Amino acid sequence: MESSLARKLGRFAPLGAAELAALAALEAKPRQVPAGTELVHERQIGHRAFILQQGWALAYKLLPDGGRQVIDFRVPGDFMGLRSVLLRTSDHSFAALTDLVVSEVPADRMIASFNELPRLGTAILWAASRDEAMVVEHLVNIGRRSALVRTAHLLVELGLRLQLVDMADTEGYDCPINQYQLADALGLTAIHVNRVLRQLRELGLVTFRDGRVTYQDLPRLRRLAGHHSGYLDQAIRAP
Amino acid sequence: MESSLARKLGRFAPLGAAELAALAALEAKPRQVPAGTELVHERQIGHRAFILQQGWALAYKLLPDGGRQVIDFRVPGDFMGLRSVLLRTSDHSFAALTDLVVSEVPADRMIASFNELPRLGTAILWAASRDEAMVVEHLVNIGRRSALVRTAHLLVELGLRLQLVDMADTEGYDCPINQYQLADALGLTAIHVNRVLRQLRELGLVTFRDGRVTYQDLPRLRRLAGHHSGYLDQAIRAP
DNA sequence: CGAATCGTTGAGGTCGCTCAATCATAGTGG
DNA sequence: CCACTATGATTGAGCGACCTCAACGATTCG
User: Largest alpha-carbon pair distance within chain B?
Assistant: First the structure.
């Protein structure tokens, strides 16, 4: 059976048997991680990267005053800590939101794959670039959009990302995020998130309830969010 | 004379004669760009990357409602559009804040340099990683810090970045940003930025006036900003 | 049953925005 | 040399989005 990562990469770069085999080798030793575990701690020495196979995780930074900013939610098929393969330390932390299945990817192994299979290397660099583009979009979202639009944007984006790994359809998707985590991602308080979610529901756009996001009117929701999916589904450059 | 990029990379990775020569070749054909020019337009097809040699530039995204979010200020020694070498299009725009001197770096040339001089490739990837870490820090800044702290943080960060290329000292630095641009970077209005700058001045921390940032009390300013420079001055991983 | 987690709602306060005006400086054309 | 304009900084008044504090309900779990 194809992994989420293979499914995602395959949507943008046609992968041959050799690439699929190399990917399968990278994901060969899955490990269980219970919900709540911190996988990588900010400024931790070492260069560990993971491929997330099942479950949801958080990338976040903590502030001296106790505040937390969620940089991104990670879903199956995503990397975690790819950057720390290059830098000595990771600049943010990762924690398991649900029980996870991950594979740890040794840095040297990944670099070796790049050299042997340039097409795979390109695909993975594309994934890394896409991750950065998502952070930029998140920055725009927090910096310049109202709480309502901002929330809508995040919900739309998660849906699109999950579609790539067949975990969402046109109805909605399962989403184990709670309102506190959502607030820390959106730069809001949980209380205000609650009110915004209610507003989205009462506007007939989307409901967020019991671990499930259900679209009521996806076109209007996307219009409100002003979401351009370009940075998510753009084809990679021909190698 | 050594370029800003060479100076910056040299602080973190010892570069040999071969690497310095390759860098000099990449920067060989400088081009003048007048202030106000848009170098790369969002979603533009093509993969152009530039090395900024002199002057300041903006990386930003425009919103449908006319708003603008400044992702980052680019200073001498920085790349612009490195990501677009991988993706078909760039996901944000670049504009010249002042008159610039830039070198356009052909994608194939850069990739060739990587293969011939892995140490240089590592150094440049380190620079790209650092850029991403700065975006993440910016996200935290906007999402979870007050206007006062946020502004202090940006001013401190710019100073540290400029120090790497000998364009700042312990007194302060020249800074051609106006209050509108600062506002678009901080997710505030220019009017409020004005008040925050006054507050910083009246607190005896820093002045921002006539294109010059002057520290009044750098230690207190850094304490207020809660600035961890780790992501800026961290050594790169040994190749 | 008690404790913990998460969601929900209300009342009131404040940070940062909107709208509007004034001032300083530099450039531009007559 | 002098309007005239454009840009950027500055200040005031009033408002609203979002926060803080506080409480309560629903569900789950040991």
Answer: 54
Give yes or no for a contact between A10 and A62, defined as CB atoms under 8 angstroms apart.
Answer: no
Name the CA dihedral angle for B147, B153, B155, B156, rounded to a multiple of 10 degrees.
Answer: 160
Nucleotides of strand C lying closer than 7 angstroms to a protein CB: 5-11, 15-20
Decide: residue A148, CB within 10 A, 0-12 exposed, 13-18 middle, 19+ buried: middle
Tell me the C-alpha to C-alpha distance, in Å, between residue B136 and each of A55, A60, A144, B133, B142. Answer: 23, 9, 16, 5, 10
pTM > 0.85: yes or no: yes
pLDDT tens digits for range B212-229: 999 999 999 999 998 876
Q: What sign has the CA pseudo-torsion B137, B142, B147, B151?
A: positive
Q: How far apart are alpha carbons A74 and A160 in whole angstroms?
A: 13
Q: Which nucleotide, over all strands, has the C1' atom closest to the CA of A188? A: D18
CA distance B16 to B1: 15
Among residues of chain A, what percentage have pLDDT more than 70? 90
Comparing A33-47, A204-218, B2-16, B191-205, the range with the smallest average pLDDT is: A33-47
Residues B93-112: tens digit of each pLDDT: 999 999 999 999 887 888 78
Q: Does A111 touch chain B (CB under 8 A)?
A: no
